[in-house]
Design a protein that fits this description.
homodimer; 208 residues; Helicase, Ruva Protein, domain 3; two-stranded antiparallel sheet; 8 helices; TOPRIM_RecR (chains A, B); Rcmb_RecR (chains A, B); DNA repair (chains A, B)
């Protein structure tokens, strides 16, 4: 593609750095902004700049927040004795949408991935361990359980394994969300690893 | 989706105004920018702002350009007696990529679409007619042919029809790009309208 304008070419280059956006889509977006009134571009760039400069992270759970402590950590209705460990804010939103969970969160900011150069120290793991230690000294609301809700990928499993090991040293109950066939999923189309795991980790009706 | 930060929500709203980007993708892009170093967001917003504020349109053909006259109109190698009329700059790029066309262009900036409220006066049609008139006075390089290269949609055809009518009043040769089965396309899978048209507008081998 030989764009006859350096200005557009620069914009296309920058837009196409975003994940999942190629050169063609970037050009389409750039031309869309050019066609629209100038205020649209101004509103977009202002919103992006403000977001990048002013957004804060909750000091407790590292979730994105407009203040020092996020709404979930600040809420009196949430169960502070349970922490659900997730990769990023999208997972928080997904779990919140289920309306099934009343505890708090801890956002890791990623998963351990040696290929991408992400080790445990790049994540908020130390902060999680500290949170657990602090709560154990505090007799009112000590943390009872840590639920690991990471993706069922190699990196997610590695991170879960690492976290479980570190957390067990503190003598705290660690659980992980169930892996199995999705609700509505048909048995014959489920891949063998998932099916195998769902048999291994079967739930006993009588004790439930 | 209940995003716990007004700043991110604003950014997501603005990003999702772009064509083909929904709320979920917008959130993914916003979180990507948050994860990246701040310079990436700065580079993106600067490129967009500069593009929107500084880009110019060629005074002759309305193609996007960094100067008053675009590279194609300014080039000595291009045949100034043929003008190819297209909808927007993407079509110019597509035709340039074929390496088959040596004439100049005229960018309409859209097609006539009563539903979207786009009439002939919103497009650069008057400017095209003026270009033709001016060239007819100029004895050196009068325009010989106008090639209409608009999409084979209802709006594209309406615009072609309108342009052909207006241009014929000027006594200039008007042609349109061929509609037919694509190269590599199989006859049996071609829709009936295209196939019908390709039979009606068949090319005579002997006179070619």
């Amino acid at each position: 593609m030989n764009i006859p304008s350096k200005l557009i070419e620069d914009a296309v280059t920058e837009i196409s750095r975003l994940p999942g956006i190629g050169k063609k889509t970037a050009l389409r977006l750039a031309l869309h902004l050019l066609k629209q009134n100038e205020v649209h571009t101004e509103a977009l760039t202002l919103a992006l700049t403000r977001m990048r400069q002013e957004v804060q992270y909750c000091k407790k759970c590292h979730n994105i927040s407009d203040g020092e402590i996020c709404q979930i950590c600040a809420s009196m209705r949430r169960d502070k004795t349970v922490i659900c460990v997730v990769e990023d804010i999208r997972d928080v939103l997904a779990i919140e949408n289920t309306n099934q969970y009343q505890g708090t969160y801890h956002v890791l900011g990623g998963v351990i991935s040696p290929i991408q150069g992400i080790g445990p120290e790049e994540l908020t793991i130390e902060s999680l361990l500290e949170r657990v230690s602090l709560s154990q000294e505090d007799e009112e609301e000590p943390i009872q359980e840590i639920i690991l809700a990471l993706s069922a990928t190699m990196e997610g499993d590695t991170t879960s394994f690492y976290l479980a090991k570190r957390l067990k040293e503190k003598g705290i109950k660690v659980s992980t969300i169930a892996r199995g066939i999705p609700v509505g999923g048909e048995l014959e189309y489920t891949d063998e690893v998932t099916l195998g795991r769902s048999i291994m980790t079967r739930i006993n009706y009588s004790t439930e």
